[in-house]
Amino acid sequence: MIRHVGTVPSRPRIMTGAVKDFTIDNFKNSSPTSCDNIHRSIDEFPRDFFTEEQRRHGAVIVHLILAFYGFLFITFVCQDYFLPSVLYICLDLGISPDVAGATFMAAATCTSELLVSVIGTFVTKSDLGVGTVVGSGVYNTLGVSACAGLAVCGQPIAVEKWPLIRDSTVYATSIAVLAAIAVDNVIMWYEALIMVTMFFGYFVFLFTQYKLVEAVEQWRCNSRLPVFERIKRLIFCRKYASMKSQNVTLHRSGTQIRQYGTVEHQLQEGERASSKIIFTSTKSTFSERDQSDVDEQTYILPPSKSSGSNMLLIVWRMFCSPVNFALWATIPDCRTNRSLFPITFVMSIIWVSAITYVLSWFLTICGDTFHVSDVVMGIGVLAVGSSIPEAVSGIINAQNGEGSMSISSALGSNTMDILLCLGLPWFVKCTLPMSMNGGPVTLQTDTLFFNCMCMIASVVILNVAAAISGYKMHKPFGVMCLVAQMVVIAALIINGLNVARDDGTVPVRCT
User: Fold this and answer.
1) CATH no. for residue 74?
2) Which terminus of the chain is less hemmed in, N or C, by CB atoms within 10 Å?
3) 248 DSSP β-pair partners
4) How confident is the model over 341-367, as pLDDT tens digits?
């Protein structure tokens, strides 16, 4: 629970693991088992339009159908609008897919966590933001990787070592910083400032990393070496350390493709490009390799869906027509008008954030109707709901043959959740005057350190699974991540239940 020191008296708490505290208010003349004194996960959302009795007698089906529509919304937004707009950002800025995943895709998918953190810090004054960030972090690390690995069909997809090690190291460092500054359950302004500064430093590093590597390679080439070794290094550097992008203009399309490293295929003058927009990014490193070893990943923006005549396809299209119409009416399609991709990107973020919140709301209502424990609700429902955009994007990227982009997006989103979504609201609150309810932020949680250890363990398991798989993304890799995900979630749930029991309190349900 996040509260300003001295504002309200302390009260007994029942911990709910990674997501939130289960509290029982001891108001005067109130029974400890009174429904008015119980704070559940469903209380964090607006009041349902059905009563609990109506939901138990079948009205919950409405929430399940609406939740399924929420899945469709997120899937269609990511596939038809969000990922194409990110692709055009890559083309215009000349950045690699892994950097795009760790920055723009991560920024888009963590907007819901930022909103929840702001609400928890300034409105409800609860640990809602901390719990959501920690809970979704485990799912983003192993769950998204499992979904992406299981979605791979055919040949395995290469996973680059450098982006994986880079993003894993930064994320693990962010977790360690969070655990260190929250060890006393009080967040000061300079501690929050450290988190925000680390976030901007991470962004600067992502966009300048290749220039740094180029500078190191040039320095190594100019070091004192034997004559023949210097000549060899000089040739090596000139061949592989040139990071200037080469622009290739597609005939008739006006689209520019920026290829990094060694260009393997070049369009001849007058050659006509395909009607599909193709983005190729070479995955060469600074280690010497043959031209044939350069691994290429190709993005193909899907054309308009082909028509079908069977009845099942017609029924499915009718079922999806409300979703398609709503998106068509509110989001411009940058695949038909490229100049609109900034608007497409922003509108996609708005849709993903709104649908993620509504989806988490409906899933919470369903769990509360079926009397799911608040511990399980927080770890197994709310965290999953907030991680759906990352999972959908990861699956689509894996099917497009871009494994590193899927993992970088998940790890980058986790890093942004900790450093920005928590650090920025905390810093703003700490710098506000006391008259505006500012001051140090107080955390009331007994499971944060254990949850941070679980998140670090998830990062280690992800890297071990990638190494065992030979840095290839395929179904065995997805199975390993899925099994590890289930083990970590089970540990979080058991720890949350044990904390509630050790506090001498028992979850109370309203009947």
Assistant:
1) 1.20.1420.30
2) C
3) 257
4) 899 989 988 888 888 788 878 877 887
